[in-house]
Amino acid sequence: MFTGLIVELGEVTSLVRKGESARLSVRGREVLRDARTGDSISVNGVCLTLTAFEGDRLAFDVSFETLKSTTIGQLRPRDKVNLEPSLRPDSRLGGHFVTGHVEATGKIAAHEPVGEAVRIRITAPAAVLTYLVEKGSVAVDGISLTVVDVLDEAFTVVIIPHTFAMTTIGFKKTGDTVNLEPDILGKYVAKFLSRHSLARTQGPPESPSEDSLLSALKRSGFTA
């Protein structure tokens, strides 16, 4: 589990293909504080297992599924990547809960200056847009961002100068691909409401507690 608050920009040193999998090597320092082999580390929003490290070099084994479903397979030496260690019980909780399980990829569609900030429009598939709400959270390459607008085939975020300078979002150009993960809490709410709607057409709710929770969600603005 992560928060989407990037601790540093790492640099890719190599991505070596091994059959259908690969081995990724990254240079980083802050993310290695108190690190141990087997730890989970977010690399551009993808939860990877630290398999080895020495000095400032981190190594990860990347599965076929990860290469297919994320942008990790597109990385090249000297590319910058967002790095975040996993959330610890005594960590401060900023951002939002990020699992590191990328739902889909999207593309940067447009940049628009807004004062000192930049509004970015990102195209996304329905699998992501379904769970986005205005002023809600989304992880873009592992960065916790606030959704500004939800459009038919895209959404927008506004990037402040600090985030622009400290993460890979500042390097992204129109047409670049990014990893997307909607807020996991939204997915759980959507699944619950979907199951409850189905139960209403087939019979009584599964339990009184579910019915009470649905009422509470409706009072908070959610609809079935």
Brief synopsis:
By secondary structure, this protein is of the alpha+beta class. The chain has five helices and twelve strands. The radius of gyration is 19 Å and the shape is globular.
Would you mind describing this structure in some detail?
With 224 residues, the protein is α+β, with helices and mostly antiparallel strands. It has three domains: 8-85, Elongation Factor Tu (Ef-tu), domain 3 (Beta Barrel), CATH 2.40.30.20; 104-183, Beta Barrel (Elongation Factor Tu (Ef-tu), domain 3); 185-219. Helix content is 21%, strand content 38%. It is built from five helices and twelve strands. The chain has helices at 64-69, 126-129, 161-166, 184-202, 208-219, and strands at 8-18, 21-27, 40-43, 46-54, 57-62, 80-85, 104-114, 117-123, 137-140, 143-150, 154-159, 177-182. A six-stranded antiparallel beta barrel has the order 1-2-5-4-3-6. It has a six-stranded antiparallel beta barrel with strand order 7-8-11-10-9-12. Strand 3 and strand 4 form a beta hairpin. The mean pLDDT is 89.
